[in-house]
Each structure stands twice: as structure tokens, then as C-alpha cells.
Amino acid sequence: MSEFSVGVRQRDTISVLDLRGYLDAHTAPELEKAFQTELEGDRYNIVVNFSELSYISSAGLGVLMQFIEDVRSNDGDIKLSNMSSRVYNVFDLLGFPMLYEIFDQEDDAVKKFLNKSENLS
Amino acid sequence: MRTFVSDAALRLGFQDDEVGQIELAIDEACTNIIKHAYKYNPDGIIEIRLSTLKTDGKTKFIVDIFDSGISFDSSRYTAPDMKEYFKKLRHGGLGIVLMKKLMDEVEYGQMVGEKNSIRLVKYLPS
Predict the structure, then answer these.
(1) Residue A105 DSSP symbol
(2) Do residues B46 and B36 lie in contact, with contact meaning Cβ atoms separated by under 8 Å?
(3) Torsion angle of alpha carbons A115, A118, A65, B21, nearest 10°?
(4) In angstroms, how far is CA A60 from the centroid of its own chain?
(5) Radius of gyration from C-alpha coordinates of chain B
(6) Is the pLDDT of residue B110 over 80?
(7) Minimal Cα–Cα distance from B81 to chain A, Å?
(8) Most CB atoms closer than 10 Å: which of A24, A47, B19, B27?
(9) Residue B111: predicted pLDDT
(10) Residues on chain A bordering chain B, Cβ-to-Cβ distance under 8 angstroms
(11) How close does chain B come to A40, measured CA to CA in Å?
């Protein structure tokens, strides 16, 4: 009953992961694989777009926690965008906005990365 | 399983959001059973029993979940401080935290017949 998929797009130096469907303990390994592929390719600027995600359980949130340290120690970040209120509520209940930037729109998350790299150059 | 529970909750009068919360809490409970009690053994059986109780002017929707795997010792569990959790960049162990936030009561117990049980309760808003 796998109703989950991850698509990956590149926007400038940023990888955008498009999540679709139902993210639970059963499907979380697919997201894990997608993150692993990005990290193995030294791509540490990641936006996760949740617009097509209808459900998330703690297993999905666990995947984000699993990679954040590695990403940030390589000067990157995982930014989140386009959550439905139902998905956002799960993040909010556990206090995830303390650790992750959550944007209404993917463009704003991408801009934040681009502004940062402009300031550095 | 999901339809079974959500149909019952909807019939009782819960709103969509609350039904979603109940579904997620049950998902977390069952995920913990599969992972920790049965160690992913596909032969493990999970039994779910639904009931309602009217008490103190409240209607309680009660979900009892039973398994015959390794028991979870809830007396040794302390909920993580989420600030510390994020500071130390831990992962895992969020299922129980989430269940407690989504439901009004979460109680672990052991029943006669050597089955483990967890009771999740949601109050129907009056």
C-alpha cells in the first residue's frame, strides 16, 4: 500500500524534494533514500515541498531529524514549504518550527538560500 | 483499519480534523507495536477495539489496542524536553509525544492473558 513518492528538481544550487501522498513508517525509507542521494551528491541546500503531501506521521519527521545535522555541518539547510494546515499542525505540535524554517511558498524558501549565498559572495 | 476507525469517529460526531488526529495517534501506536513489540515480525497480531463511554457529562471515544509482543515499560519512559531534543538533534521516539498531544488520555497497561494494551481516549467536544 505504498502511496508515497518523492520527486527531485534542481533550482539553481538548490534541490527541491516534492513529496506526494502518504508519509508514514512504511513509506519513510523512500524519503530517507532521496536525502541520501542528495547528500552523496554534496547537495546540502534542500527545500522540501509538501504541497502534494496529505499525511505525515512521526516517522516522516524523524527522517528530517536524521539528516539535519549532516546538512547544517556542511553549511546547508533543510527548509520546508507549502504545507497543508493538517500537515503543519503535526510539525507545530512537536515544536519543529523551533528548528526548521517553514515557508508558505517554495519560492520564498529558495530566495532565502539565494540571498544567503549572495551575502557570502 | 483507518476506515474502520475514522467511520466510527465520524459517526460519533467528531470533525474531520479530530478524526485525523485520532487516525495519526493510532498509526503511531501501531507503528511502535510493529517496531518494538513485534520487531517487524509479520505474524504479529494487533487487535483494535473501539468503544464509547459517557461519564462526567463527557462522551469519550476509547480505542484499545492489544498485542502479544515484547512489553513496553511505560514507567521507565519520560517524555523528552523538545528544546533539548532539538538542541541535541535527536531523532526517533516522537510517536508517544505525538500520541499524548493528539489524544486526551494515553494509558499503557497489561491485561489478563499476557497481552499488552494501550488505551487512547479522545473526548467528544460538547
Answers:
(1) S
(2) no
(3) 10
(4) 10
(5) 15
(6) no
(7) 10
(8) A47
(9) 65
(10) 24-25, 55, 57-59, 61-62, 65-66, 68-69, 86, 89-90, 93-95, 98-99
(11) 20
3 state SS of B109: strand
pTM of the model: 0.91
Query: Is the Cβ–Cβ distance between B28 and A55 less than 8 Å?
Result: no
Backbone angles phi, psi at B49, to 5 degrees: -125, 130
Interface test with B, best of A70, A93, A100, A101 (most B CBs within 10 A): A93
CA B105 to chain centroid, in Å, comes to 9
At A60, which helix (H) or strand (E)?
A: helix A58-73
Give the residue carrying C-alpha cell 493528539: B102
Phi, psi of A18 (to 5 degrees): -95, 115
Taking 60 as the threshold, does the pLDDT of residue B124 lie above it? yes
**Which residue blocks in chain B are alpha helix, DSSP H?**
2-12, 16-32, 82-87, 94-102
Do the chains contact at B91 and A93, CB–CB below 8 Å?
no
User: Which of A32, A35, A57, A91 would you mutate first to test chain B, the one with the most B CBs within 10 A?
Assistant: A57
Q: What is the mean pLDDT of residues B106-116?
A: 82
The single-letter DSSP state of residue B49 is E
Residue keyed to cell 539535519: A68
pLDDT at site B113? 72
ipTM of the complex: 0.88
Instruction: Cell numbers for A4, please give them.
Output: 508515497
- DSSP string covering A74-89: TT-EEEEE---HHHHH
* Residue that has been written with the C-alpha cell 513496553 in this structure: B72
Residues in chain A: 121
